[in-house]
Design goal:
The chain is of the alpha/beta class and about 425 residues long. It folds into 2 domains: about 1-20 and about 360-415, no CATH class; about 35-355, TIM Barrel (Alpha-Beta Barrel). Helix content is about 45%, strand content about 10%. The chain contains 14 helices and 12 strands. It has helices spanning about 5-20, 25-30, 75-85, 120-125, 155-180, 200-215, 245-255, 270-280, 305-315, 335-355, 360-365, 370-380, 385-395, 405-415, and strands at about 35-40, 90-95, 130-135, 180-185, 190, 225-230, 240, 255-260, 285-290, 290-295, 295-300, 325. The strands form 3 sheets. The protein has an 8-stranded parallel beta sheet with strand order 3-2-1-12-9-8-6-4. Strands 5-7 form a two-stranded antiparallel sheet. Strand 2 (about 90-95), helix 4 (about 120-125) and strand 3 form a beta-alpha-beta unit. The protein is globular, with a radius of gyration of 22 Å. The structure holds L-rhamnitol (RNT) and zinc ion. The site of L-rhamnitol has 10 residues, from loops.
């Protein structure tokens, strides 16, 4: 399809939507305002640059050995540059503390400072990406027991508390330097493989640790704190200290953001239904959009019922202003740049699909009790030419339309990734 054909297809599609009272130009403008936070860790299988010889820990796993993974921060940034060129819109980058650049010097995690992220800040400024952040409480000898902030060992807790405090300050620096609040998200792996005898004390310890970490107030214009729970991990199948209920309570009581990761619940449970419930009690949410396959497997996001339902909830509920959308998956079995691009494009497509709904009409039908027509209309919408909208949006945003983005990835794979051995 050439540009003219894409525009013609858009015009015809626009009329189809107009018949239902949907303003497609408005939908495309709204989509252009939504930033996604791309997770740096898809580019190197959550390895980072500490070079301390630690395996990926914390009960998460990246499987696959597709060639060409980024080995240095420069390679990772270079790979990200390509990904951003193939994703329509302006987007953020989500960093992990593990991605510090310390110039070959060993810097303990509780001693990390903004200067260890200077190259990331420069790159972010040059490329107009705001930054988000995460302390890294895994892949480290002091996390080897499986416990960090909820450890019975006071020294271990202290170390990780100091790490999280250091990370909030780094987040604050990101926010200040880039003029956009950094969301600093705390996720810890703490839990037990087998039936615990005491579920209570580790949760009390975790609460204490979080209270200490968050004691210092930081201007929300620069840093926002978020807490992420989960149901289970590898080696923490029977008990996770930081469960959903734990953090839901903590976020409400302490006015921090709650993080909902799509892979962190029972496999038949969707976070879409949770959004309108928790938004009554928390001011802001962070989403980790991922795709679990049978478990929290962190597969690339697809244009699935699940991703569409989440996007619909955000749009229908009017929550876009209060929800930060991040991606969180790590697939090492396919081209890692393509993984970023496919997952991000699908998340945006799900949002576009939601923005194209004749929401007023659906509401009128529902309030009037006409559930038959509601069902009929919802199903008809699936057949409307949303693909033509998406193609036109990509064209307008100056990124490849359709499958053509894979040509650039293939070309980069041959030119750059092949050199990485
Ligand atoms: C783990 C959490 C967490 C991590 C990242 C790397 O289950 O989802 O968000 O994926 O911190
Ligand atoms: Zn997550």
């Amino acid at each position: 399809m050439n540009d003219q054909q894409i525009q013609q297809a858009y015009q015809i599609a626009k009329e189809r939507y107009a018949e239902l009272g949907v303003d497609t130009d408005k939908a495309l403008d709204a989509l252009a305002q939504i930033p996604l936070s791309l997770h740096c860790w898809q580019g190197d299988d959550v390895t980072g640059f500490e070079n301390a010889g630690e395996e990926l820990g914390g009960g998460i796993a990246a499987t696959g050995n597709y060639p060409g993974k980024a080995r240095t921060a420069d390679e990772l940034r270079h790979d990200l540059d390509l990904a951003y060129r193939l994703i329509p819109g302006r987007h953020r980058l989500n960093l992990h503390a593990l991605y510090a650049e310390t110039g070959g010097k060993r810097v303990e995690r509780n001693e990390l400072r903004p200067e260890h992220f200077a190259a990331w800040i420069d790159w972010a400024k040059q490329n107009d990406h705001a930054l988000d952040f995460n302390p890294t409480l895994f892949s480290h000898p002091k996390a080897a027991s499986g416990f960090t902030l909820a450890s019975y060992d006071k020294g271990i807790r202290k170390f990780w508390i100091e790490h999280c405090i250091a990370c909030r300050k780094i987040g604050e620096a990101f926010g200040r330097e880039l003029g956009s609040a950094c969301v600093t998200n705390i996720w810890i792996p703490d839990g037990l493989k087998d039936t615990p005898a005491n579920r209570r004390t580790p949760r009390e310890l975790l609460r204490q640790s979080l209270d200490t970490i968050l004691a210092e107030k930081i201007d929300p214009a620069y840093n926002l704190d978020a807490v992420e729970g989960k149901l289970f991990g590898l080696g923490s199948e029977s008990y996770v200290v930081g469960s959903h209920e734990f953090y839901l309570g903590y976020a409400i009581a302490n006015r921090v953001l709650l993080t909902l990761d799509t892979g962190h619940f029972h496999p038949t449970e969707t976070i879409a239904d949770k959004i309108s419930a928790v938004m009554l009690y928390v001011n802001e949410l962070l989403l980790h959009v991922s795709r679990g396959v049978r478990w929290d497997s962190d597969h690339v996001v697809t244009f699935s019922d699940d991703s569409q339902l989440i996007a619909q909830e955000l749009v229908r509920g009017g929550y876009l202003e209060r929800v930060h959308i991040g991606l969180d998956y790590f697939d090492a079995s396919i081209n890692r740049i393509a993984a970023w691009v496919i997952g991000a494009r699908n998340t945006l497509r799900a949002l576009l699909f939601a923005l194209l709904e004749p929401i007023e009409q659906l509401r009128v039908l529902e309030i009037g009790g006409d559930y038959t027509a509601r069902l009929a209309l919802l199903e008809e919408l699936k057949g409307l030419p949303s693909g033509a909208m998406w193609d036109f949006y990509c064209l307008r945003q100056g990124v490849p339309v359709g499958f053509a983005f894979m040509d650039l990835i293939k070309e980069y794979e041959e030119r750059e990734l092949a050199k990485r051995g």
